[in-house]
Amino acid sequence: MIRRPRRNRQTEAIRNMVQETSLSLNDFILPLFIIDGQNQRVEVKSMPGINRFSIDTALEEVAACVDLGLTAFAPFPSIPEPLKDKYATESHNPEGLFPSFIREVKKNFPQVALITDVAMDPYSSDGHDGIVENGEILNDETLEVLGKMALTQAQAGADIVAPSDMMDGRVAHIRQVLDENGFQKVGIMSYTAKYASAFYGPFRDALNSAPKSGDKKTYQMNYANSREALIEAELDTAEGADYLMVKPALAYLDVIKLLRDNSNLPIAAYNISGEYAMVKAAAQNGWIDGEKAMVEILTSIKRAGADVILTYFAKEFAQYLKK
Ligand code: PBG
Predict the structure, then answer these.
(1) Is 194 a catalytic residue?
(2) In whole angstroms, what is the distance from residue 163 CA to residue 207 CA?
(3) Which residue ranges of the chain lie beneath pLDDT 70?
(4) Tell me: the pLDDT tens digits for 179-206?
(5) Which of 46, 272, 279, 310 to mutate to test the pocket of ligand 1 (most atoms within 8 A of CB)?
(6) Domain residues of the chain, as ranges?
(7) Which GO terms label this protein's molecular function in UniProt (predicted)?
């Protein structure tokens, strides 16, 4: 035999030398759940190791993560029920929980990148990402709310706004609103191919943001489709997105690869709550080695073509690197 692929697997030094994909802390964005109140640090039951923080403890968490070498964070607010309404009015209240958190982070850690979520669901009494009228999700009316929300976040100091709602035309609208108000430098990380997924459950528990009626299938994509992701990618690119995101990540590695092969923009992938919960649940049962599974999953997402990975594992991975 002339060709023996096993030669390149003989020793760890050789294996490391020919390794094609390596993870770096620069690849990661850590999502953070922000709640009202003070001195709060409440674990999300379905996401062992992940907490919901009030602003003060969230700042401590950011400090700890910065010490570990993480530089990018994606906060999500959990809004108290009485502040929710049909039009997600609280989402553009400059004194609200979320803009206050953004200001505090940028004041204390000007060096970190804050990627902020633009979507109505945490603020909506209907639990949807758009305005609901007679059971229908209104597209163009929702854009107005998203524009105001993105502007409020930019004014508070967000580096990059990330629309996760899947309304048509939202990237163009947000870009226009930001530019008209002098925020040319604020980037847009678009949730380009966001699928209607069963894996969002733990996130919706964490934020108490599940839809009150119906599902999200009229705006989030059908998971059976991949060519449709190219249509979304084309539109987001034309509308001015600075990053294209695929979400979820693990059951969608082919879609990550598809966008990577068809775009020169940075590709982000969101390793979501349910993907995290599965690993933790199996590891807690002693059924898999959670740490090894974490590294393998993150590597697979990068191997598929993601430049940026949003993952609840980011802090644990940073700790693992320090070992
Ligand atoms: C909605 C949104 C969702 C997530 C982020 N933003 C879920 C949903 O569509 O209900 C999920 C993230 C995760 O599961 O980790 N705007």
Answers:
(1) yes
(2) 17
(3) none
(4) 999 999 999 999 999 999 999 999 999 9
(5) 272
(6) 24-322
(7) porphobilinogen synthase activity; zinc ion binding
